[in-house]
Amino acid sequence: MVQIIEASIGERLWLKASANITAGQVVEVTGVRTVGPAGNDSKKACGVALMDIANGDKGEIYLTKPLLRMQDSGSGITAGDRVACAASGKIKTYVPLTWTGYVAATSGGSPTVQETAVGAAGASFAGDKDYLGIAFDTLATNGWGSIFWG
């Protein structure tokens, strides 16, 4: 049986730094089980550094998201990718919509204006929060790995 909950919000983990990190900085996923200082408007943030951590060293991180074990749907997922729900309750790499503009259309002889977008089939403009979390491991096809949820 697979243990689903790996760590809860508020737990502290020792994680490897991909760059120098200062205590109090928000950190984001930068690779397999690796974190670095979060970038501007990061969608990969997962915690806060509790100490200074030199590049390549491990340091204590306070988790702001739970860490769960989940299964890939069959396409493989790279660490740091956002993930979305796939068939059969599994996960897949999230593909956001890209707004492309407005298009003039005719409906029953009357002109209308519609928004257009490209992206995942069936996706909507519900904002950029249609994803479930961030991959903390690289998941092989149909493999299991850790995901920061939320």
Structural class: mainly beta
CATH architecture of the largest domain: Beta Barrel
Number of helices: 0
In whole angstroms, the N-to-C terminal distance is: 24 Å
Cα radius of gyration in angstroms: 19 Å
Low-confidence stretches: 121-126
The dominant shape is: globular
Global mean pLDDT = 86
Which percent range describes the beta-strand content?
Answer: over 45%
Instruction: Work out the count of structural domains.
Output: 2
Order of helices and strands: EEEEEEEEEEEEE
Please tally the β strands and state the result: 13
State the name of the first-level CATH class of the largest domain.
Mainly Beta
CATH T-level topology of the largest domain: Virus Head Decoration Protein, Chain: A
How would you sum up this structure in a few lines?
The chain has 150 residues and is mostly beta strands. It is built from no helices and 13 strands.
Write the layout of secondary structure elements.
Blueprint: E1 5-7, E2 12-17, E3 26-31, E4 34-37, E5 45-49, E6 58-63, E7 67-71, E8 82-85, E9 91-93, E10 98-107, E11 110-118, E12 133-135, E13 144-149
Parallel strand pairs: 2-4
Antiparallel strand pairs: 1-7, 2-6, 3-4, 3-5, 5-6, 7-13, 8-9, 8-12, 10-11, 12-13
